[in-house]
């Protein structure tokens, strides 16, 4: 997710400025906690490009249906299948979308048929689901469960953490490397114009757009130690932390609705009463997100076999075309530098985002704040904030979507790295001078203002341990990004981008921790970088790198 905190006010059309409220991230302090478990299996071994690939493990007891991999590009499908088949959980969801009406909110109801594969490295005596829609920020929104059964035996889930966690007990422990089937019925109510929701689970009556993130019960995320993350939904950062799974989703909705989703549509058939049943499959992804709208227009471009699609409201046609151009450029440049994006489609969607956000990333699909589409600078061929948002969200397809991390604990890994590489995008598209200028505007100035007003802070800390949402944003998005720039300067481009390619290859579909990224940089550079890493991410020593003269110079 890209926040507006820490960034200068973008120059947008006058009517759009009135809609943007900068700095509305909540400053609430919520302490993250996790249910401990035994240590999981160790970190994956790294392979240099010259090392032959190890033979793929045998297919596990999870779902290994090759049809679920249809959204993966043909030239990568065999490798992705060999890495993951039978070793991921699989969600098969049948649901119905009922749009909002004058007297009632939008709803989505259905059933999840879930095969859970236990790759946590320890036996499980219960499974935990997140019901993010029950968080207070979603106002009248919410989610209930019914008809929960484990291996065909009905059971009653136990709710906790303000009804955002559901514990499903198991009659016998689920062994590591084993799988079990569950069914979960659910009903979700979608709030209308929920001011604190970021717009990710929300109906926007002004545009008629229904945004459905975390609309179904999803397994709680867990890291390399196997511990479930059951913290209250983050006040400052992204609320969803989930592990990679396969999705087979059927959605019945009014025929006039355009559905934009994670994955690819593989079937559509009339369902009676003016409705259509659409079926989608995802390939290996961390989540499944849906957007529904009755008047979206689209433009497309193919990049390295991937179809990039910009979906936009009719009034935003110029911005929609620009979003396509920016997204295609970002994908082309970073396929080369980070490793190839593995999916056949990438969707960039115009909708209303709220509460200080400017864009929000999901697997294969990104929300782009519609307020930024109306910018007179789009016709001038100069960098714009909209371009920054698009490049940032596209880069999240590597850092978060492919290579996961626990955003509640280590948000700087994906947000800081993504924000720094967004400046690299400007360098690649417009040249080094513009790249340096954008770095000064978007990274240095916000950080220096904080550094020489309240003082520095540590980057590597839980998201909700920061004193405010504004401080979180500046440390995680600005200071952390500058830290990754310092690493690039220290080890050079060949080692820096080589490390990122190796990190992406070694940890795609997994959950990484900061030490994994540090190890990738050290392996590529052939030297220890512990002190540089500590200085930028684990200490508050920014005054050693900058003086107040730097702030005054930047202000000029």
From TrEMBL:
Region ranges (Disordered):
48-67
User: What start and end residues bound the annotated signal peptide?
Assistant: none
Q: Cite the GO molecular-function annotations of the record.
A: metallopeptidase activity; zinc ion binding
InterPro entries (UniProt xref): M1_LTA4H, Peptidase_M1_dom, Peptidase_M4/M1_CTD_sf
Q: What is this protein called?
A: Peptidase M1 membrane alanine aminopeptidase domain-containing protein
CDD domains xref list:
M1_APN_like
Q: Which domain of life is it from?
A: Bacteria
Which is an annotated Pfam family here? Peptidase_M1
SUPFAM superfamilies according to UniProt: Metalloproteases ('zincins'), catalytic domain (SSF55486)
The record places domain Peptidase M1 membrane alanine aminopeptidase at 331-536
Residue ranges with Low complexity bias:
48-63
């Amino acid at each position: 997710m890209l926040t507006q905190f820490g960034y200068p006010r973008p120059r947008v059309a006058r009517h759009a400025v009135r809609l943007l409220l900068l700095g509305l991230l909540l400053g609430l302090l919520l302490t993250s906690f996790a249910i401990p478990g035994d240590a999981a299996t160790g970190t994956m071994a790294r392979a240099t490009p010259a090392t032959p690939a190890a033979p793929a493990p045998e297919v596990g007891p999870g779902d290994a249906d090759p049809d679920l991999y249809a959204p993966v590009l043909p030239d990568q499908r065999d490798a992705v299948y060999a890495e993951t088949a039978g070793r991921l959980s699989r969600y098969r969801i049948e649901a119905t979308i009922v749009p909002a009406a004058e007297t009632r909110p939008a709803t989505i109801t259905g059933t999840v048929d879930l095969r859970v594969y236990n790759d946590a490295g320890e036996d499980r005596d219960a499974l935990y689901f997140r019901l993010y829609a029950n968080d207070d920020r979603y106002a009248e929104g919410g989610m209930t469960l019914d008809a929960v059964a484990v291996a065909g035996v009905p059971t009653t889930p136990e709710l906790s953490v303000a009804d955002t966690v559901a514990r499903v007990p198991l009659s016998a422990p689920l062994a590591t490397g084993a799988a079990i089937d569950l069914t979960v019925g659910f009903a979700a109510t979608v709030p209308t114009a929920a001011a604190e929701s970021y717009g990710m689970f929300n109906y926007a009556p002004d545009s008629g757009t229904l945004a459905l993130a975390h609309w179904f019960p999803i397994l709680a995320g867990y890291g390399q130690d196997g511990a479930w993350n059951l913290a209250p939904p983050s006040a400052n950062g992204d609320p969803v932390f989930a592990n990679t799974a396969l999705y087979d989703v059927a959605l019945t909705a009014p025929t006039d609705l355009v559905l934009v989703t994670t994955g690819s549509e593989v079937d559509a058939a009339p369902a009676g009463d003016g409705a259509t049943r659409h079926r989608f499959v995802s390939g290996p992804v961390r989540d499944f997100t849906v957007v529904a709208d009755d008047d979206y227009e689209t433009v497309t471009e193919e990049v390295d076999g991937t179809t990039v699609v910009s979906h936009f409201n009719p009034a935003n046609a110029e911005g929609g075309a620009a979003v396509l151009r920016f997204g295609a450029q970002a994908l082309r440049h970073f396929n080369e530098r980070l490793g190839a994006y593995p999916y056949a489609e990438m969707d960039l969607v115009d909708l209303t985002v709220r509460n200080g956000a400017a864009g929000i990333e999901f697997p294969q699909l990104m929300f782009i704040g519609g307020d930024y589409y109306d910018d007179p600078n789009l016709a001038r061929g100069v960098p714009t904030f909209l371009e920054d948002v698009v490049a940032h969200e596209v880069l999240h397809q590597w850092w978060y979507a492919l290579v996961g991390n626990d955003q509640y604990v280590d948000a700087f890994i994906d947000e800081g790295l993504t924000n720094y590489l967004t400046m690299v995008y400007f360098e690649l598209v417009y040249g080094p001078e513009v790249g340096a200028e954008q770095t000064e505007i978007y990274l240095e100035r916000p950080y220096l203002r904080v550094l020489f007003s309240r003082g520095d802070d540590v980057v590597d800390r839980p998201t909700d341990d920061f004193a405010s949402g504004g401080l979180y944003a500046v440390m995680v998005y600005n200071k952390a990004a500058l830290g990754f720039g310092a690493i690039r300067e220290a080890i050079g481009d060949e080692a820096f981008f080589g490390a990122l390619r190796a990190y992406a290859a070694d940890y795609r579909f997994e959950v990484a921790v900061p030490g994994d990224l540090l190890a990738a940089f050290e392996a590529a550079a052939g030297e220890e970088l512990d002190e540089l890493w500590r200085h930028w991410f684990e200490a508050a020593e920014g005054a050693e790198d900058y003086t107040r003269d730097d702030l005054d110079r930047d202000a000029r």
